[in-house]
Amino acid sequence: MRIAGFIIGALSALALAGGPARAEPMRIGVAAPLSGPSQLLGEQIRNGALEAASAPDITIEVADDACTGQGGENAAQRFVDAKVQIVVGFLCTEAIEAALPILKQANIPVITVGVRTDSLTDRREKTGWPVFRLGPRADSEREAAGRLLTRLWRDELFAVIDDGTIYGRELAESFRTTAEQSGLKPVFADTFRPQLDNQIGLVGRLRKAEATHVFVGGDRDDIAIMARDAKQIGADIVFAGGENLRSAPGDVPLAEGTLMIALSEWSDIATPAALATLAAKGIVPEGYVLPAYAATEIAIAAVTETTDTGKPLTGTLAGREFSTSIGSVRFNDKGDLSTNPYRLFRFDGSRFLPLDVQ
């Protein structure tokens, strides 16, 4: 009887207090440039994160990092004050590098969706920054170009040219180095003058060198003009370039068969469920919407597992594969993606389609 009376009394006390104590809501920070020239991209991040974290037991703390160092510091301090458990977002190196020392001190990991600077994760052992990168590294495009095209062109006569810009020169030189390490040597290599109305002279030299395939470190319009001029003089040449080929089209259309090293379009690889969720809210899945959506899915899964197991959050992020709306994601020891997300595509006359390389 005494035990029964104690239980009844305890239940009554709980009822008067509003019932059993509930766990604290999950708190996720979202850092995005919501002012300045990158505001549109910041809004994409915010929209994607908010839709992925729509459950009532999740609290989202959004902070404008303004893509500046001061903005990054302010956002980080706001997250610390709000006691968030993890942060997603960040597009700019200045903002995230200013934020990370503060977040590290508070033991708050970050999943960035847009910062490509190699040193961000290359310095991990020295800085101890708890950062994980959902987007590619700056050198991912160069690595993929060398690996994929040297495999595809191992029996071809190929040339390597660039437009003299830092981007073009690094992309072309990286490809040539990888090719030579694989025992392949270009039949022609040169730097061309970009933004000309025609490239007849260059194409003539390529034909004289008997090049049938050409890797171009340059922009979309120059590659389109080269292919046009090659066709005019009867030279059967396949041109390839980097993700600049996705730039807005100019006066000259790209030639069918043009090859591109680039990321997949997020909407092409996203799950139907995620696309339907966004469509129901009138959100177009462009730019950083889907990467932010996926980063938030990872954050939720990691915090949930950490709550259940007591394992450190950074350990959870580094130690498993996550199923997301844009595919499976695993981070390596530095916090980068464990696999290079760049792929090879072929232009079919109207759009780029994936091309498998054996």
UniProtKB/TrEMBL annotation:
Ranges for domain Leucine-binding protein: 25-348
SUPFAM superfamilies reported for this sequence: Periplasmic binding protein-like I
Protein family (similarity comment): Belongs to the leucine-binding protein family.
Residue spans crossing the bilayer: none
Protein name: ABC transporter substrate-binding protein
InterPro entries: Leu-bd, Peripla_BP_I
Gene3D superfamilies: 3.40.50.2300
Signal peptide: 1-23
Keywords (A to Z) from UniProt: Signal
